[in-house]
Amino acid sequence: MYEAFFNLSSRPFAAAPRTDCYFPSTVVENARKSLSRCIDRGEGPGLIVGPAGTGKTLLCQMLAEEFAGRFAVALLSSGRLATRQALLQAILYELRRPYRGMDEGELRLLLLDYLEPVAGGNDGLLLLIDEAHTLPLRLLEEVRMISNLVRAGQPRVRVVLAGSSTLEERFASPKLQSFSQRLAARCYLESLDCVETAEYVRAQIRSAGGNASHLFRDEAMSSIYRATDGIPRLINQVCDHALILASLGGLEQINSEAIEESWADLQQLPGPWSTAPKVGAPASAVVEFGGLDESPDEMPEAIPFPAAPKLAVPTPEEQLAIIEEHLARIDEDFEPAGSIGTEVELDFPEFGDPFAEDFAEEEVILERYNSDAEMFAGLQRVSPRDGLTLSALLGSLDVNLPQPVTAPPAVFADRLDVVSRPAEPLPQLVLSSPRSSLADGAKLAAADEGLIVIEDDAVACVATARPPRLEYGQLFAKLRRG
């Protein structure tokens, strides 16, 4: 717009950072050299801290151009990242790798596979994160985990973080103690002083093919510093707007009034310096309070001024409490590595009462700790009459009878409903009375392991041979039916 009026080849004060207009001020150049050494030797992550407009983004771009031939460079400055998946996708996007349709684990494996050393390949990844103070603590922890990849004794990922003073406060948190210990360079950017401000303006004019000494007066340089406080971004705004106003007004040289008008037009405020005295007004350095011959009655009364309030300076304990309270409000939901799971969105569908469901069948589960009386309370039992009948039957037999018993007495035949089959004798029974000796009982107990003991008040029967399963079941079935 004004390039042709001032015979300039390009716009000297651009709004966006440009590496071809880099001005090596003392602070910025020292930071660039420190970070270059840190990246070249793989010493560890680097940190850039500075106020807004002091050249953090430009410094990141300078590092990206310097190491573009040696490393694969990923410069993240597009906006706020909220999840690990978004962080990994942004890195893969800068590396021109596929990143769509994959979950967090697949993205991480794809990045690790890309970082594996290849013969004739690059030395790894240079990860530059601008506006890093906007990252949550969990994403800063993820960056640390990515930078842990080491092959052949050299890290495969070199990291540089740039942000405001909030970034340094985040690293003061105990949750990032491991990352803070790995920082190899901490660079702090500052605004330019008065001399560097004038040199910066002249350097930008020379890069556009103009004559800075002819275009800007010395008084204009001082006004630029007082208006912008030496912040490069504000210097670009004020000077660019002053050139626009000068070209519209037909002025070939920028003076102090043009800088003040430019500042007032941009900020809608008067300039932050005292205005010059009006032309023709007498300038005097003497303040007259009155004559010495005036009487005390004619002297004006003194104007009482209120005492200036004293500023309350917090004690060291109060300052420590304020800092701890501020750190506690920073990402209270953060968890260190090892307890971090995959970030998923939980969607709970609406459902009714789970106890209203119709069940097809019910199961009866017997508790192992219940007594037998509780477990078999509902089952059919043998009546006492049947037990007495069986006792009488066994008591009527000869206790010392050694030969097999083929059939019970006829008096109980109708009771037991047993059909006499001579070809199939009943199993051999050896009966014993309760009055038998203990020696006989011991002999019977040692004769066979499969004993059936039926006890009653009057008679006890011990059988040394177990009857067939079918007949034994029929016998007790008949007894239960009566």
Keywords:
single chain, 482 residues, alpha/beta, Rossmann fold, Helicase, Ruva Protein, domain 3, 5-stranded parallel beta sheet, two-stranded antiparallel sheet, 18 helices, 9 strands, 39% helix, 8% strand
What is the CATH C-level name of the largest domain?
Alpha Beta
CATH superfamily of the largest domain: P-loop containing nucleotide triphosphate hydrolases
Physical arrangement of strands within the biggest beta sheet? 2-3-6-1-7
Find the structural class using helix and strand composition: alpha/beta
Strand content: 5-15%
Low-pLDDT regions: 274-284, 401-424, 426-439, 441-451, 453-464
Number of domains: 3
Structure description:
- This protein has 482 residues and is α/β, with parallel strands linked by helices.
- It has 3 domains: 20-188, Rossmann fold; 194-267, Helicase, Ruva Protein, domain 3 (Orthogonal Bundle), CATH 1.10.8; 384-481, no CATH class.
- The chain has 18 helices and 9 strands.
- The strands form 3 sheets. The protein has a 5-stranded parallel beta sheet with strand order 2-3-6-1-7, sandwiched between helices. A two-stranded antiparallel sheet has the order 4-5.
- Helix 3 runs parallel beside helix 4.
- The radius of gyration is 51 Å and the shape is elongated.
Write the layout of secondary structure elements.
Layout: H1 26-41, E1 46-49, H2 56-66, E2 72-76, H3 84-94, H4 104-115, E3 125-129, H5 137-146, E4 150-151, E5 154-155, E6 157-163, H6 165-171, H7 177-182, E7 185-188, H8 194-207, H9 212-215, H10 218-228, H11 232-249, H12 256-267, H13 316-328, H14 372-375, H15 384-395, H16 413-416, H17 438-447, E8 452-455, E9 460-463, H18 469-481
Parallel strand pairs: 1-6, 1-7, 2-3, 3-6
Antiparallel strand pairs: 4-5, 8-9
Helix pairs in contact: 1-2, 3-4, 8-10, 10-11, 10-12, 11-12
